[in-house]
Amino acid sequence: MIEIIGLTKQYGKFTALDHLDLHIGEGTVFGFVGQNGAGKSTTFSILATLLAPTSGTAFVNGYNILKDPKKVREQIGYMPDFFGVYDQLKAEEYLDFYGASYGISVNERKKLIPQLLELVNLTDKRDSYVDLLSRGMKQRLCLARSLIHDPEVLILDEPASGLDPRARIEMREILKELKAMGKTILISSHILPELAEMCDVIGIIDQGKLKAQGSVAEIQEKLQGAKSMMVKVNRNIERAFAFFEDNPDISEIERHEDGASIQFLFKGNAEAQQQLLKACIMQELDLVSFAEIETDLEDVFMEITNGGMES
Predict the structure, then answer these.
(1) How far does Cα 11 stand from its chain's mean position?
(2) What Pfam families does the entry give (predicted)?
């Protein structure tokens, strides 16, 4: 669906984007995470044909951004990180204006606009003036605007920026609906946990370079070379501790203050993890729980952007 090849953008001696290569399959929700100034908005602006690259190119649904910019624009719905609204326009009029700009007929717009307002939970605000809406409502209206021509690809630059917790949840639920509709979605943020639960794949960019790509679990496993595990036993914790300590695939083993839990890093794959569990049962370790610990996403992000991993 989206193919980025050697994409580079320079401003004089400053390199904003450094030979970016990326493939995003159809129907994928791809999260682009990086600090402010890392290259996220530059990438999105180039994909939206609003900015010319210094070198390299990209394809959106088979169309070259340099040779077929008009066709590319037909494929995408672009929501920038900063967008303007028009004073003295109501929400419905705002969408009607953009629908007309895309050449959508009056009759089609009359059917489409109520559906979009319902999708973004703004039906009751259809007659409200845009400049009087809250920031979260404006964000959702801008998302509806980017959907007006039913694009196959959505490019959303920091859509949750500046939103309160409730507005963030509302935005996340709308994105889940769009994912269920089969849209290919590129979404950026400088906050990794904000993207993790809604994205199929995450790419971490730093100083214009892609540092890591994959699911959160894959990125952590590559980074640490092991999975963080937690085991809780009902009794005989000393015997359990000795059992895990003797396993060559286990490191950094520690006993928790509760007197029943043991945490360690396990470098084996899923099959080896299954064999370890079977061995625990065979040894009658009296397990209460045996589980992988959820990734500390902030730690992962900081370690990668501080040079802990190269793509």
Answers:
(1) 27
(2) ABC_tran, DrrA1-3_C
Q: Which of 178, 213, 248 is the last residue of a domain?
A: 213
Q: How far apart are CA 303 and CA 220, in angstroms?
A: 10
Domain shared by 170 and 244, yes or no: no
Q: Are residues 289 and 163 in the same domain?
A: no
What pLDDT is stored for residue 101 in this prediction? 92
Neighbouring residues of 101: CB distance < 8 A, sequence distance ≥ 6: none
Q: Shortest CA distance to 1 belongs to which of 21, 32, 24?
A: 24
- Is 28 in the same domain as 145? yes
Task: Specify the pLDDT at position 311.
Answer: 44
pLDDT at residue number 219: 74
Same-domain status, 151 and 62 = yes
* Phi then psi dihedrals of residue 235, to 5 deg: -160, 175
DSSP state of 293: P
Domain contains 253 = yes
Pairing between β-strand 63-64 and β-strand 55-60 as defined by DSSP bridges: antiparallel
Q: Which residue has the tokens 């990209």?
A: 58
Q: pLDDT, tens digit, for every residue of 18-48?
A: 999 999 999 999 998 888 888 999 999 999 9
Domain of residue 279 covers 221-298
Q: Let me know whether 142 and 207 are in one domain.
A: yes
User: Residues 79, 83, 89, 94: what is their CA dihedral angle, to the nearest 10 degrees?
Assistant: -10
Asked if the structure places residue 125 within a domain, the reply is no
Residue 222: predicted pLDDT: 65
Q: What is the pLDDT of residues 134-170, one digit of tens each?
A: 888 998 999 999 999 999 999 999 887 777 788 888 8
